[in-house]
Amino acid sequence: MTNAQDRIWIERLPLAAGRPVLGFGVTTLLILAAFALRWVADPYLPGGFPFVTFFPAVILASALFGARCGAYAGLVCGLLAWYFFVDPKMSFAIRSDTLLAMAFYLLVVVTDVFIIHWMQRANAKLARERELSRVLADTRELLFRELQHRVSNNLQVAAGLISLQKRRIDDADARAALDEASRRLALIGRISRQLYDAGGAARRMREFLEPLCHDVIEASGRTGIRCHVMVEEDATLSPDAAIPLALIVAESMANAIEHGFADREHGVIEVELSRDGAQSLRIEVRDDGHGLPEGFDIDGSGSLGLSIARTLAAQLSGTFELVAGRGTTARLLLPA
């Protein structure tokens, strides 16, 4: 049996708590079995062992059916041992050595019954506390999920309000800025439900990046864009780093979709996580689009999205850069 199964079985003791007739009936059978075994073994046992088979009967009765059955077994077994196996046998003669033997028997039986009863009460209390802890943990997780759901919905509503406000603005730059703000809020709202664990545990990067990439492409409305997540050596992601990292990767993918595939229906984006030496993690977002314009300088580009990505990378003690090649590569280096 596993430890969990053992624990569940032990927590059921004492058995037949609401059926005393069954408990006392089985206890009587244990007493008779102990007596029969002691009777059969009597010719082979040296003197001074009148209770040797009765102690296990008392312990079993106490453990299986509780203190009342244990006390009943102790009383009946004591009388049987006194009458049949304590000298002078076949009598309840009272002598000093008899009183000493019965006092010893009484001490052992009372101690056994008390300890078993105390352990069962402690075990029952532990089981109640464990169940209470489970209920509280379930409630906490439910509230956590509900909070995530409400935060996500509120962010989506805020993004929608920004989009509505954009309609009243004629300035093209202002409309573009509101568009970007609305898109970022909507994206955070979409991914916020998967950013954190109810227990506060760190998440694996692969299980974080894959749904994130799917959400970014779905939010863009571009059905011809495919994304591949490649993880050479997985790493953990602390909860505090989840939002900044999500925004950096999302911003890189959004730039690839908007600029790299500006006049294309189809394209491929690769998101790769790898080790850059022993002390750094490298996250690259590569596309097979048009690539960077001639003479592109990230410092002088004036792009708000790139500025946000570099600022968030600095918050994570990392660096963010764009590299020209076959398409464009956005590279994020983070401390391992």
Automatic annotation (TrEMBL):
Tell me what reaction this enzyme catalyses: ATP + protein L-histidine = ADP + protein N-phospho-L-histidine
**Localisation:** Membrane
In terms of superkingdom, the source organism counts as: Bacteria
- Report the Gene3D superfamilies cross-referenced here: Backbone structure of the membrane domain of e. Coli histidine kinase receptor kdpd (1.20.120.620), Histidine kinase-like ATPase, C-terminal domain (3.30.565.10)
Q: Name one GO biological process term.
A: phosphorelay signal transduction system
- What EC number is given for this enzyme? 2.7.13.3
Give UniProt keywords alphabetically. Answer: ATP-binding, Kinase, Membrane, Nucleotide-binding, Phosphoprotein, Transferase, Transmembrane, Transmembrane helix, Two-component regulatory system
* Molecular function per GO: ATP binding; protein histidine kinase activity
Matching entries from SUPFAM superfamilies are given as: ATPase domain of HSP90 chaperone/DNA topoisomerase II/histidine kinase
Pfam families listed in its UniProt record: DUF4118, HATPase_c, HisKA_2
Q: Name one GO cellular component term.
A: membrane
Q: Which PANTHER family does this entry report, sorted A to Z?
A: ETHYLENE RESPONSE SENSOR PROTEIN, TWO-COMPONENT SYSTEM SENSOR PROTEIN
Q: What is this protein called?
A: histidine kinase
Give the organism's phylogenetic lineage: Bacteria, Pseudomonadati, Pseudomonadota, Alphaproteobacteria, Sphingomonadales
